[in-house]
Amino acid sequence: MGAWVDMVFVLLVVIDLFVLASSRLGAVIRAVGVQGALLALLTVLLASSAHDLGHVLVLAIGALAIKAMLIPWLMFRAIREAAIRREMEPVIGFVPSMVLAGAGVALAFAFSGGLPLPSPGKHPFLVPTALATVWCGFLLVVSRRKAVTQVLGFLMLENGVFVFGLLLSDIMPVMVEAGVLLDLFAAVFVMGIVLFHINREFSSLDTEKLSALKD
Amino acid sequence: MTDLLARALFQAGLVLLAPPLLLGIVNRVKALFAGRKGPPLWQAYLDLAKLLRKGAVYSRTTTWVFRAGPVVGLAAVACAGLMLPVGGQPALLAFPGDFILFAYLLGLARFFTALAALDTGSSFEGMGAAREVTFASMAEPALFLALIVLARATGSLSLSGMLGPGLTGAWSAAAPALLLALIGLFVVTLAENARIPVDDPNTHLELTMIHEVMVLDHSGPDLAFILYGAAMKLFLFGAVVVGLVQRSGTAGPWASRAWFLLGVAGFAVLVGVVESVMARLRLTRVPQMLVGASVLSVFALVLLLR
């Protein structure tokens, strides 16, 4: 059991690194979706006591539905609409960004042991994974040119916040749910890109003009 | 005493005889994936025998370096084979820090192959040597980081200890770290042996090839030595990967040797599958993959150190 939880945490961080190293948007979207699914799994695995099981299940199913299904679907739609496949020229190259990510991960794992936590006895990888994911998401937001990749970076950052929220899920469940709600913000963001694209294409946001796309 | 003799015979025999068979398995898997029947499994032995019977042609511009290249390359790789534990048993030659000698014997082989390529005076071979050395300089940190992870996990500085009985405890204590190191090692294996995501062992005409271009001027027995050395190197890396996965322990020495042989055959099948389902990466992506392998190993090390 403990080894499996370790494995999930490590997989979350490996996905962070993969997302920074990959230039294919489809693969990145899939990776972020898998990360969302892993977060749902993690919520269940880390449920400390049975009394708030319903709460935990709602959280897990919410994360699965929004992070692993709805948002990847929206993102795939967005790249299909915008007809982009790859992030061509990042501001920070793929190798440097991977090295930066590796350094951030190493620092997160090395120093998070010294941080004081409100509730002791949590899994030792929880805080470093959250910090590493936030760092990688942040890196993705600032180092890529395409709006789609930036949104994916934001989603990853949000995934990190969600992991951090698991730390507090016993004390203040409202905070955790607020984290899930942030996802809705992300969804709006995604729609924003689509709208922007429509806007650029037709120099108006009037959806009536979309019918002109029909044969 | 008989145990030692059995160990010595098994290790020497395996390192000397098995490598061409490994190539046969890889090629057979690739052929099956492509829908062909493929050459027989022992084709590489026949190729080597044929090459050994031929004479060698030497260009007038070459010096003794060119003739020394294949010999030194094969000898260095064979020496490295002595330090590798095979079949769950300790290696014939084991001392603290032998993994550094292991890595640099392989480095010596590469150095002499590159020198021999430069010695021909051909700009084409010089380009291949430059590429090989460039990628090797990135594969080396990845290899060492993975080995350091093993050293840290098992508390041993010798390959026999790193891939020996200490591993069973290490897998139960730090499975994620070892898994990351395993992935890193496998990527290094593909890069070091000029396998497909990095280099295509079958090309001779592409401008993107790396390793094969360096050996274009070798012929006859020299080429046989090079091919044999390359196969042996693939076997050595395979033995490291299999040794990392294999749990030595309760089974008797011969049972664990049998498992080891099976594991190496499985490794060859895996390499063949990777070669069949992947396309070769662009040259600019190769450093990225190797840096990625290093980063994974660094992450594994951090997991162990915290």
Describe, in short, the structure shown.
The complex is a heterodimer of chains A (215) and B (306). By secondary structure, chain A is mainly alpha-helical.
Describe this protein's structure:
- Chain A is mostly helical.
- Chain A is built from 7 helices and no strands.
- In chain A, helix 1 packs antiparallel against helix 2 and helix 4 packs antiparallel against helix 5.
- Chain A is globular, with a radius of gyration of 18 Å.
- Chain B is an all-alpha fold.
- Chain B has one domain.
- Chain B is built from 13 helices and no strands.
- In chain B, helix 4 runs parallel beside helix 11, helix 6 runs parallel beside helix 13 and helix 11 crosses helix 12.
- The mean pLDDT of chain B is 89.
- The chains are: A mainly alpha (215), B mainly alpha (306).
Helix content of chain A: over 70%
Q: How many distinct folded domains of chain B?
A: 1
Mean model confidence by pLDDT of chain B = 89
**What is the tally of helical segments of chain A?**
7
Spatial shape of chain B: globular
Query: What is the number of beta strands of chain B?
Result: 0
